[in-house]
Amino acid sequence: MKVIVTGGTGYIGSHTIVDLLNHNFEVVCIDNLSRSKKYALEGIEQITGKKPIFYQIDLCDKEAVSKVFQEHKDAIGIIHFAALKSVPESVEQPLLYYANNINSLVNVLQAIHTYQIPNFVFSSSCSVYGNADTLPVTETTTIQTAESPYAHTKQIGEDIIYNFSKAHPFHQNILLRYFNPVGAHPSALIGEIPLEKPNNLVPYITQTAIGKLQQLTVFGNDYNTRDGSNIRDYIHVCDIAHAHTLALQYLIDKKNATTVEVFNLGTGKGVSVLEAIAAFEKVSNQKLNYIIGPRRAGDVVAVYADKTKASTHLDWHCQYTLEDAMLSAWKWELKMQELF
Ligand code: UFG
Hints:
single chain; alpha/beta; Rossmann fold; seven-stranded parallel sheet; two-stranded parallel sheet; 11 helices; 13 strands; globular; binds uridine-5'-diphosphate-4-deoxy-4-fluoro-alpha-D-galactose
């Protein structure tokens, strides 16, 4: 069965392609390489022994999108990752985020409708919940105001898919709301490749440990949490990747009760920033150079998932621990020294 993956050379996209190929899907990968490297395709091939078909196109180019979808209208589904994802960048350049993330989604939905591709899986984010008023967050937790233009594009994207599905109920859709994806494939052949200075905690940790960055700042230790630092739900990227294969199969098997279903993808466990650092230090045998600094604007105090729905409906269960994720992130950082 053929599946089209947009943003397939990116962080979660590349890990998902590995999982799809390992489950015997044929993959067509689309990416404009604006925030990723073609190297990901080599890593995917080394891990799986298989090669996805690749198109370097921009999803904002409606004609180019239509052409690829016409060529692959026999696809059983599409997994749509391609999007810009930096929270601070979205605050500085909101229009870039609205133009890119919304136009690309509209073009993809138009194409799947034109070529009658039945199943659609969308990369959403726990950032759609904003500052949730109850924890853990379930799929029915009230959506609050988005904290950033990035998060707003994910809220708008979800609304577009709901309205699309009302008008065109032939299409079956799943929205996957990721918590904090971290780590890399255990082979260290693919992983996240930050093209600029990272904003996210784990690449910041590994780049500090290897000496690319001088020092990590923990953004605040005066929050009302067990050790004063923020709490997040860090989930191994390979667990996130496998959830996409299961979600697609769930739609193919027509197990969905409604035309749009939503799943949280998190471990269900909240981990503080200081605990995450301690886990990294333990598995890597590195002493991390860090200081406590002021709070970062826009950070929510604590957020973690209720994952019951994905466990029961998709039969999805995390295979990796936080320590596994930290060790794989470290191995990937070391590997990148050889590669780039
Ligand atoms: N942190 C630090 N120092 C750093 C970087 C991060 O202390 O140098 C802290 C943050 O304050 C936060 C935690 O580490 O408490 C995690 O921060 P990340 O930037 O890694 O992740 P966020 O939770 O802020 O954001 C992530 C993704 C977004 C997504 C969001 C959903 O980056 O794309 O989760 O909550 F929208």
